[in-house]
Amino acid sequence: MSRGWLKYSASAACAAVALSALPMTAAASVGNIHEFTVPTTKSGPIGVTAGPDGNLWFTEASANKIGRLSTTGSFKEFNIPSPASQPNPNGITAGPDGNLWFAESVTNKIGRITTAGAIKEFAVTTPSSRPVGITAGPDGKLWFTEFNGNKIGRITTTGTVKEFTVPTASAGPGGITSGPDGNLWFIEFKQNKLGRVSTTGAFKEFPIPFPSSQPHDIVAGPDGNLWFTTLSNGGPDQIGRVSTSGVFKEFTIPSSTSTPQGITVGPDRNLWFVEATQNQVGRVTTTGTFKEFRIPTAQSSVELIAPGPDANLWFTEFFGNHVARITDQPAPSLSLAPSSGLPGATVHAAGSSFGSFEQVRITFLDSTHGTAVLATVRTDATGHFSKSVSIPGNATSGGQTVRASGLTSGVSASHAFTVT
Prior knowledge:
By secondary structure, the protein is mainly β. It has 2 domains: 33-326, YVTN repeat-like/Quinoprotein amine dehydrogenase (Methylamine Dehydrogenase, Chain H); 333-419, Immunoglobulin-like (Sandwich), CATH 2.60.40. It is built from no helices and 36 strands. It has a 5-stranded mixed sheet with strand order 30-36-35-32-33, with no helix packed on it. Strands 1-28-27-26 form a 4-stranded antiparallel sheet, with no helix packed on it. A hairpin with a 5-residue loop joins strand 8 (109-113) and strand 9. The protein is globular, with a radius of gyration of 21 Å. The termini are far apart. The relative contact order is 0.13. The model is unreliable at 7-27 (pLDDT under 50).
């Protein structure tokens, strides 16, 4: 659900020092950054998201390509059929159909790419609408913003487009995300508002109570609120929080004039964001405690950020021509319902804070019979999974353990199970 929609031109470039693509290690400390150089020079990477194939997918605004990057640093690039000027394309997200979907601002299209690299494009109905942000909705469709068209668009996985006009004229809708309340939430950059739209097209708008905030990106937080970045005009840059009922609070970023852009939730259940002007990645807890991390390449113009399948965060550097990884400290959890029962009982296992679209193995640790694999399940884009499993029929009576282990990240969580 990445949105680099404010990048109007990629004509300027600055010198960047490419660091070697270093392998991830379990011992890497929180905030370590490794940069991976995109094969195409001056490609202008902007949007980034985890794909259902265990790779990172990103947009190359200046090269007119979609890129794929493995967690170990292997690249593959795919040309977009429609030739277009920058900044095409911008936002990219994983769809409910197992493909990646992206917005083409200049050519006025929504694109779809399979994990094998086959691309198909669909025209947006309103001419020159400039689609920018895109996200998967709770209704199995893709939802996108039209910055110039002043509309929220919806597209099915077969390519049928429907548009809904934002009530406030010239709102400049940009970043968009699926909210915890089953609605879509988006920012109105030009009107200092946040918008909410239901899957049937009913709108409600919330004026941001802080003047000239210029909201940019938005994400559903781990606390049931929406979190957003603001490019405050004339004041301190801030990270904003709003409840689903419209109660606002803002937190001032320690570094002044930081120009925060993309924001996402990390597997550590904190909010992570990027600071384009200060060339940093920031982290803020849900109570407002900040930590900032310097990016090695100077003036890289860091753009957007997303959780990866390895339970770290990945971000793009427009001028630096990198896709980079910053290490996280995942806090995976596992719950069981019920947490006791007879041998052979069916148990509902739910996990969170694993990698995005990561394969997770669920095992039963028996004090007598050893380890038995109960299931392997893939998490969703936010690192959650839900799976019904059966306790082994020969399980030993007493206290045993169920464990969930991420096959890419290596993180795990356990929960006691009492065999009666």
